[in-house]
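User: I want to check something. If I give you two sequences, will you return the structure for each one separately, not as a complex?

Assistant: Yes, each is folded on its own. Here is the first sequence with its structure:
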Amino acid sequence: MISVNADGDQGVGSAFHVGDGVFVTARHVVEGMVSCHIELDSYRLMRLAEDATRALGYGELAPMPIKPLPHPNPDKDVAVFSMPSLASLPAVPLGDHLDDWITDHDFVLNEVLVLGFPPIPLSKKNVLFATRAQINAVVDLINVDHVHFIVSATARGGFSGGVVLSEWGVALGIVTSSLLKNGLPEELGYLTVLTVEPILECLAAHGLLPVALALQWDGLFTASTEHFGVPAKSWAHSWIETDRDGHRARISFATPDEGARQQMAEALIALPGFEGETELVGTAKHVWNYHGDYGKSEAPLEYARTTLTAILLAQGYLPVDRPIISTGSLDEPAFVDLLGNIDSIEQ
C-alpha cells in the first residue's frame, strides 16, 4: 500500500484481504493522507487475480486508488476499504479470540507468521516480507481498550497494517504502531499486534462484514437491542433487536406477554417486505427478515422498530438501560421467584 501526504512524500504500509473484496489496514497508514493506493505484485496478478485486473485495465504493479474507512473510535488503529474487483483473492480468516476470552498468559510463546511490506533498501520494488516469530507477551495498553500482543520480530516501517497469522492458520491480529518512547526509531520499539475485535467492529461499522463473518458472528457486532420492563426495579422481560450487517436486514423480538407478542407479530405481518420465522431460544425468539432491497432497508427497519416499541409502551412497559433479562412467562413460578428476589435485593 502506497500513501502520499500533503508534502508529496510517499509512505509504505500493508493490508490484507478478509473476504468479498474487503481489506484491512492500520489507521495510521492512511489517516490524513492526500491519496492512498494499493499494488499487486506479479505473483498475485498472475496466479490470483489476473483476469479480473486485466479486464479492468490494470497491468503489473499498477496502483489502484482506495477510499479507506477508519474505525469510528479515533484511538483504534484500524481502517478498512473495499475493492470488489479483487474479491477472488484468497481471504485470511480472522480468529475468534475476543478480548474477554484472552488472559495475560494466553498465546505466550506461540509461533506466528508476520507478513507485510517493509521497504528493503536497494530493492527495485516492494516485495512481500515474511518472518517467523513468537508471542512474548499479552498486554493491555493505557491508551487503547483492546488486547495487544508483543511479538519477537523486529518492528519495521511498512509492516503496519500487515497480518500476523497464528499457528492455527487464522489472523491473530494486525500490526500497529511500534511501542517506543522518546521519539526513537521504530526498530528500537516492540512489534505490536492489535487483536481481531476492533477489526470486526470497524468492518461492522461500515457495513463491510464479509458474508462468512456476518454469518459467523450473527449480529454480535451489528445488532442494536432495546430492553423493556420496569426501570425502577432494573429488570426487563421484553426486547427488540434490529440488525443490518451489510448483507441482510432483520428485526427480532421476545416477550412473555402473549397479548403483546400477538400484536407485534400482526404488526410485522402488515408491513411490506417482512417475513417472520420463530427460532426457539429459551422461550421464544421471533426473527423477522426483510426481503426487500437491502440498500433501502434502513427506513423500513426503523419503522418496524418504532411500531413494535409503540406496542410495548402501550402495554405499560418502559425502556430499561441495564436490565436483568428474562423472557419466560410472567406467570411461571421461576419467573415470579426471580422478580421477588430482585425486588428484595433492591429494597
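And separately, the second sequence with its own structure:
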Amino acid sequence: MKKVVISLLFIILGMLLVWVLFEPKIAPYYMQLTQTRVGLQEDLQPKEQKGAHFVGSAQCKKCHDEKYHDWKQSMHSKMIQDVRKDPKAVVADFSKLPADADFRREEVVYTIGGKFKQRYMIPAVINGKQDFRLGNYQWNTQTGKWQHFKPWKYWYHDAYPHDNRRFPTSNTCDGCHFNGYMATEKRIEPSIACENCHGPGSVHVEKPHSPVYKASLHDPIRTNEICLQCHMRNRDKRLEKDPDIHDLWMKAKDYPAGYEAGRPLIRYKMAAPFIYGQETKEFWPNGAAKKNRTQGNEFVRDAMYQHGITCINCHDPHKLTNTAQKPEGNKACMKCHSFDSIIGPHQPSLEAHTHHKPGSKGSRCIECHMPKTGRHTGKSPLTVRSHMFRFVSPAETKALGMPPETNACYACHKDKTLDELQQDLAQWGEQTWPSQEVLSHFILENKVKP
C-alpha cells in the first residue's frame, strides 16, 4: 500500500512538473479554452435584459467611470462625431475640396472615421423619411488627399441608385456606428458605445444587480460575436432565402439588423462568401483581407478561433489596445506562446524560429503571421493586417496569383522573387508539404486528374 501511495505521489509530482515546464503561459486560459461550447443558435442574453431599452453611455458612467474614461479615449467613441458639437472632429482640408463635390463643410452634421479615412454625413430625405446621405468625396487620412467616393459600389450595387444623394446611411453605416440603431433603428448615441457590446441597459440602470450581457462569461466561440457583428464583412441575411438582390431595392442592410448583444448572431448575419482559390472584392484567393473590417471573416477560419481564443485575448475592448498603429509587439503573442512549448514555437529561441536577428523586423510575430494584405480604400497603402495568423509561403502566394507585396517575405525582401524566397525557406528546413488547398487549386486550374 505504501509503495502504491509513493508511486501515485511521484506521478502527481511528475504531472505538476510537466505542467510547470511546458504550460506556464497557456495555463491561465485553461478555464476559457475548456468552456462548454453551446452552439451558434442559443440565445445567451440574460432573461432580465429582455425588453430593456437603450439608454446611452452617460448612464453607464455613473457607476463605471474608469471603463467609461478608457472607452472615451478610444476610437470606438469617435467613429461618428457631431461636428456641431466638436468642429475639430473634421480632419479633412476643406479648402482643397474638389469643385464637383456635392456637399460643403457647413452641410456636414456627422463625420465617420478619421483614423484612416473620413466620410461625411449630410441630412437628406430618402424614401420619404428624414435620413442622412454621404458626400461624393472622402478624405484619405493616409495620403492627405480627397478621394472620390461611390458608396453604392459594394455588394449592394444592384440594390441602390448609383447616386450617393439617394443612398441612405440608415441601411448601411448607422447600424454599426450609432449605439442602438442596429436593433431599434433609432440613433440613440453617435458612437460605438457600451450597449453595442453589452446590450440595452435600462433595466440594469434601474436595478444594478440585474445583469447585462458580458461576453467573456460564455462560450469563447460566442464571445467573438460581439466583435463579429461589425468586424465581419457580410450580406443581408434575407439573401439566404431569396438570393435576388433586386428584391431588396432600397432596403438592403449592410449590418445584422435586429441583433442585440447576447442574441445568436448567426440568425441575423450572413458572412460574406468566400471559396479558397477564388478572389473577390473583399478577399484574396487564400482568404486574406483585401479591405478593412474583415478581421472576423479571416479569424473564424483560424485554428485559434476553433480552439477558443477570442478577440479580447489580444485587444482590450475598452481601451482598444494593441492596434495597427500601436501594436504591442511580440509580448502580445508570447502571453500564450513560448519556445519549445506544446503550442510552440517549436524551437529553442526566437532567432531559431524566425531565422532573423532578434531585434529585427523579421523577428516580429505580426510581420510573418499578420502581414499587411489590405487597404482602407483603393488608393490607400497596404496597412490592413491579416487576421488569418497562419504563415503564407511565397509558393502559395505565387500559386494563387496574388500580388507579391501581400506576402510576408516579399514585403521586406523586394529584391528577391517569390521563387528565391521559397528557396530560402527550403534551405532553412522550413519547407512543408504543399497544402491540400493549394494542390486542389492547381488541379482545378490545370484540369489535372488527382
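Because they were folded independently, the notes below concern the second chain alone. The chain has a mean pLDDT of 92. The first helix runs from residue 2 to 22.
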